[in-house]
Write a structure and sequence with these properties.
The protein has 59 residues and is α+β, with helices and mostly antiparallel strands. The chain contains four helices and three strands. The chain has helices at residues 2-11, 29-32, 35-40, 49-58, and strands at 15-16, 22-24, 43-45. Strands 1-2-3 form a three-stranded mixed β-sheet, with helices on one face. Strand 1 and strand 2 (22-24) form a beta hairpin. 12% of the residues are buried.
């Protein structure tokens, strides 16, 4: 998951887990997501591999 976190950071990307949360790295990213993402799925701040792992397990 640490490698995934680095990749997301370098690509300035978000991670969308089907049936789970959408993970962002910065609070500003929330505003860039389509309205359907913000309304239908939880959005979680996850910057590290451990945070990504916790968010997936919690969903």
């Amino acid at each position: 998951m640490d490698l995934l976190a680095v990749l997301l950071h370098r690509l300035d990307a978000v991670l969308v887990v089907p049936g789970g949360p959408t993970m962002i790295q910065r609070d500003e990213d929330r505003e860039l997501l389509p309205a359907s993402f913000r309304e239908e799925w939880p959005i979680v701040m996850a910057r590290t591999g451990a945070e990504i792992d916790r968010a997936i397990r919690a969903s």
